[in-house]
Design goal:
By secondary structure, this protein is mostly helical. The protein is 78% helix and 0% strand.
């Protein structure tokens, strides 16, 4: 490949934060399911940290996506993964009040 494009560091960091957030939410759901649907404080705190990571990750991914001469795989992956976590958290909060 004859190109000057590079993988942006912020995009890679956003993807890593997205993977960490998704895995944290999945593990928390599994522990809550095994506890009979009763989430403990540790699961809630873990999901709260995952939400914070997702917010930071989506900001990094958007900033990275706006750079010039980059490969767009990692910024797009970061946007997708972090958006999934944020949308899932919004879904959980809406379902808690219905």
């Amino acid at each position: 490949m004859f190109t000057d494009n590079k993988h942006p560091v912020r995009g890679i960091a956003a993807s890593i934060l997205g993977v960490i957030s998704v895995l944290t939410v999945i593990i928390s759901i599994v522990y809550t399911y095994r506890a009979g649907g009763q989430a403990d404080v540790k699961s809630g705190a873990a999901v709260l940290f995952a939400f914070c990571f997702a917010i930071a990750g989506i900001i990094l991914a958007i900033k990275s996506r706006l750079e010039k001469d980059i490969f767009k795989f990692f910024p797009n992956l970061g946007i997708i993964l972090n958006s999934l976590v944020i949308l899932f958290m919004i879904y959980i909060l809406v379902m808690a009040y219905i």
